[in-house]
Amino acid sequence: PNGVDLERFRKPVDLDFRGEQGLDPSSLVVLSVGREHPQKAYATGIRAFAKVAERIDNAYYVIVGDRAADHSPLADSLGLGDSVRFPGILHGDAMVAAYQQSDLFFSPSIWEMMPLVVLESMAAGLPAVVTNISGSQDLVVDGETGFIVEPEDETALANALLELIEHPSMREDFRGRVLSRANDYSWDAISRRYLELA
Fold first, then answer.
1. pTM score, whole prediction
2. Who is most buried in 17, 58, 65, 190, counting CB within 10 A?
């Protein structure tokens, strides 16, 4: 599998991601990361989030990546207003701050291999809602570090998001397990595994 630089995503960064996005510190931030591509299924993610927004007033869906804003007409058509944000491409500490200052990670993809963004979110300690596809299903432990849902099932995706949003104690429990599991994917740990196979 791929590895992740744990130190990069855990070190404190002096950037106010929420402030730059105009988000209140008390808001609930759902994060997706990746360029616009059919495999990412952002349209499904936005429609699922629309069901979340019907119940949660202070929830925001932030999609970071090149051309993700192509989906802004869909968000507008669903009446989401500024509840869905498209910051564009983020680099360096700005990307790290996005992970660190979000509440949970969301990957509605319909296919992946070994998604680095899920590993990065794990390094930052984010519980995740992902789809039951290769890579994501290997990284997330269903019911322990996040939830695994069938691809394109908007209702199930929304319900999984709501479960984490409405239960902050669950998010905190999952966070501890996420950080522990991410240790197994540090570059040091992965390098040793490759050497054992050499």
1. 0.95
2. 17
